Structure formats: structure tokens, C-alpha cells
């Protein structure tokens, strides 16, 4: 157990709650602080002319009004969390790339014949040009924006307390999430607390805004939730937490 060690979780809901449960189970003090709010379009999506779906976030599925017309399509998901959401939604053929957008593009290009049409259901903010990478591999790709995120109104009360009280660990799942966390800290006039924080980012790309500020950042070995949590456990051990 790691009593007294606060971990601030910045990802959006409902992912924030899932990460918090995992962090709490590891013995840390989990502090939810979603830096973004998801606005879903509730779009109607058809499957005409589509051979497969690509998902870079589970939020994309939640944003679709009715997934039943799509359930016969194979799904390629960026990671296991998104793959699990697709299976729970009723998709029978689901492949996880266990990585980032580049890993997803490689997985799709490996499994689909040249010329097939991939529909990428996505948020407004995208990490990497998945459609472009697929087209380079000889596939046809269409990106449909089905949700967007907006800056949260502020830090949660518990996050403000943790920042004011002393050292804490902050988990970062995306570059936009890092930017928004820094913006919320600045708005709360707690910028001086940043020097006391240790950040763990899910990828080098996610860490870029933190590197720009010269902050203390550790990068997960793989761009996946499991690796992020493993890096958290390793950091705690190095800090000497019981």
C-alpha cells in the first residue's frame, strides 16, 4: 500500500472513474480531476460502403445514437479499453492495436486488403492523421467527427487541495489533456505547485506540453493504460513509498 500518496487523474469521464478505481486498488489516494468535458453529437451513422470501423476512443461509440446498423463490421480499436467498449456494445469482431494511432494504422493495414474502406469515428481533437496513414497503405479512409471536448470549468476541490498541500503525481493521457491541466492550474493561481509535481504521461506525444514547461515527466513504456499504471507503481517504489 502507498498511504498518503495522492495521484491526480486528468482524463475525461467515464475513463477517469475507471483509472481512479485501478489507482485506488494499487493503494494510492485517487483524485479525480477531469480536465475536459465530452460533448457528444448523437450522430446517426450508416454502414453503406464501409468495410471496417476504426476507433481511437470509446467516447466515439458512446456518441453514436444507434450502433446496431454497424454491428456486422469488424472493429479496430486503438487499445484494449476501447476494444472492451466495442465488445460491450455488441461488436463480435474486435481487434486491439494496444498502442497509439500509428500502431492502429499498422494493425489495420496488416489485416485488411488494399482498397477496403475504413470509417474512423473520432473526436474533434485527433492525435495523428489515421486516415492519412491508412491511405498511404492503400486503404480508403473516411473520418467522421462524432464528439468534441471542451475545457472543464476548473480543477476539482480535491485536486486544488492536493496541489496546495504538497507533492503529488499527475497522470496524463493526451497532449491536449496536458495543455488543459496546465491551463486549469494557471487559472487557479497554483502555478507554483507545478514544480512539486511528478507527471506520468502515456506517450512522448502526450508529454510534449509538459516538456515545454520543463516539468518532471516520466513516460510509460507503451502508450497503453496498463503501462501508465505500471510506471506509476515503479515511481512510487523509487520514491520509497511502502
From TrEMBL:
Membrane-spanning parts: none
Domain Tetrapyrrole biosynthesis uroporphyrinogen III synthase: 18-229
Any one GO MF annotation of this record: uroporphyrinogen-III synthase activity
UniProt-listed GO biological process terms: tetrapyrrole biosynthetic process
Pfam families listed in its UniProt record: HEM4
InterPro entries: 4pyrrol_syn_uPrphyn_synt_sf (IPR036108), 4pyrrol_synth_uPrphyn_synth (IPR003754)
Protein name: Uroporphyrinogen III synthase HEM4
Organism field: Glycocaulis alkaliphilus
Amino acid at each position: 500500500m502507498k498511504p498518503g500518496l495522492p495521484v491526480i487523474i486528468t482524463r475525461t469521464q467515464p475513463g477517469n472513474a475507471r483509472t481512479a478505481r485501478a489507482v485506488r486498488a494499487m493503494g494510492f489516494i485517487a483524485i479525480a480531476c477531469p480536465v475536459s468535458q465530452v460533448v457528444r453529437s448523437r450522430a446517426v451513422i450508416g454502414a453503406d460502403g464501409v468495410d471496417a470501423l476504426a476507433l481511437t476512443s470509446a467516447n466515439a461509440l458512446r456518441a453514436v445514437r444507434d450502433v446496431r446498423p454497424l454491428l456486422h463490421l469488424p472493429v479496430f480499436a486503438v487499445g484494449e479499453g476501447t476494444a472492451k467498449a466495442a465488445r460491450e456494445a455488441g461488436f463480435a469482431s474486435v481487434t486491439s492495436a494496444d498502442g497509439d494511432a500509428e500502431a492502429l494504422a499498422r494493425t489495420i493495414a496488416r489485416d485488411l486488403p488494399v482498397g477496403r474502406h475504413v470509417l474512423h469515428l473520432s473526436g474533434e481533437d485527433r492525435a495523428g492523421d489515421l486516415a492519412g496513414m491508412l491511405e498511404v497503405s492503400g486503404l480508403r479512409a473516411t473520418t467522421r467527427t462524432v464528439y468534441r471536448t471542451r475545457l472543464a470549468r476548473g480543477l476539482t476541490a480535491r485536486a486544488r487541495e492536493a496541489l496546495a498541500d504538497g507533492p503529488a503525481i499527475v497522470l496524463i493521457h493526451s497532449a491536449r489533456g496536458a495543455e488543459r491541466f496546465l491551463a486549469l492550474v494557471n487559472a487557479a493561481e497554483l502555478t507554483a505547485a507545478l514544480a512539486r509535481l511528478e507527471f506520468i504521461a502515456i506517450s512522448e506525444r502526450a508529454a510534449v506540453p509538459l516538456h515545454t514547461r520543463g516539468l518532471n515527466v516520466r513516460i510509460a513504456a507503451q502508450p497503453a493504460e496498463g503501462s501508465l499504471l505500471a510506471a506509476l507503481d515503479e515511481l512510487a517504489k523509487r520514491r520509497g513509498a511502502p
